[in-house]
Fold:
Amino acid sequence: PPGSAAPQAGTPDPHAGGMPAGHPRVSPSDSELGFNPVPDRSTPSPLVPKHTIEVRVVDADGKPLPGVPVKLGILRQSVAAGEEREHRTATADASGIVRFDKLPGHDTSYSYRVSVTRDGANFAAAPFNLDENNGQQVILHLYDVVRDLQTTRLGMFAMLYVETRDDVFQFEVMFRVFNIGRTAWVPQNITIGLPKGWKAFRAQDAMSDVRFESVDDRVELHGTFTPGQHEVGFQFQVPNDQTERRSFDIRLPPRVGQMQVIAAAPQTMDLEVAGFDAAQPTAARDGSRNLVATKRMKPGDGALERVTITLSGIPTRGPGAWIAVAIALAAVAAGLFFALRPHARRVLLLDL
Structure:
């Protein structure tokens, strides 16, 4: 990097490929740039017969993995029958190949998904429809599974959006997870601490098993984070107590190196995030005003562990709304009073 010291004379430069005698070989995949995974592939192929799916199961380096049980999920959606699900299982041969043939349909009412469960992790290709004239060829990579975060090369970027409504603060949270190692990470006991009084949790829809779950009074991270990039998010609400200033404290998961907080904010409103750069105004797509605060951790700073968000100048209902409520309640009370007077009851009985 700029400003770093040049290698001393006689000292091999690791970036130039020279290493001291006896040093283990450093390959590009093990360098500071991280492992560069080959994506899974799922494409129609004329080499595969119609109504057939051929799956090649390989390891991180593309070498075949024989003897692996492979699961094929079949989903049919129709107006008349709704959803119908079917599963088939087969084992990869010596070349790591599995074939599912005589499949029921190639129209869009049928969708297929190939997956493998290994050491508690789920490796799956994206769902697909069969081609009318070709079979489908799927290449699925399996990785060694780790659960200890200390053994992974993984980092996160977080984004939080908050909108003030009449009765609640609406939050949307998204994490972009970068796994640059050669292993798949399955999180254990990774939780997020939400502000006091949170409610209405809803996880973001996802094509994979990566997700947040609400468990009792906490929110947990689950799923299989293979090498590459993953996005996972959720929404929640906090009651609006109609005060002009409100703070929210959120405990983050490990390895968050950058975070952006965005607040939908009218002109009277301000956003402050402890330790972040000063919030800057920006226009949303609809022309409304947003405030954006960002924090980027530097090497050696460690990760962000928690964030405290303060909104000020929050619009409140004001006395007019409460006066209207009081008048309405008084009218209801007066109606009940006259309805329950003895004379009113006698008149009602005579009418009957």
About this structure: The two ends are 94 Å apart (CA to CA). DSSP finds two helices and 22 strands in the chain. The first strand starts at residue 41 and ends at 45. The helical segments are 318-339, 342-351.
